[in-house]
Design brief:
117 residues; 5 strands; globular; binds zinc ion; alpha+beta
């Protein structure tokens, strides 16, 4: 069997990780009231953030995710702390929780992370 290398990130929160770490959300009964209940009974689930249930986006691999991160870092102004950013991004996966993106100030969150280390 081919190993699934996909790497996913949340659409609505800070979590990212391997496709093998995702949660599985059963759609609400309201969603399934429209005659598609058989899908749910067959065990179909939607992959989601393991902490909050947010839907996910995906890359083909962790390497692709890392390349995207490096591209983001390269686009930042001079003086941007790239090593801190990389550690902080990994901490968003390792923390065992997630933070909703709505109203979230990533620069402040990264700064707080750096000050706590
Ligand atoms: Zn989440």
């Amino acid at each position: 069997m081919v190993k699934d290398e996909r790497y996913v990130y949340s659409a609505c929160c800070t979590w990212h990780g391997s496709i093998n770490e995702v949660g599985a959300m059963a759609p609400s009964p309201e969603v399934w009231a429209g005659g598609r209940r058989n899908d749910l009974e067959r065990g179909h689930r939607l992959p989601c953030c393991p902490h909050c249930g947010s839907p996910l986006m995906e890359y083909d691999s962790r390497a692709e995710w890392d390349a995207g991160m490096e591209k983001f870092i390269a686009a930042q102004p001079d003086g941007f702390d790239a090593p801190l950013y990389r550690r902080w991004m990994q901490s968003l996966h390792d923390s065992g929780t997630c933070v909703p993106l709505k109203g979230w100030d990533w620069r402040s969150a990264m700064k707080e992370f750096g000050e706590s280390k």
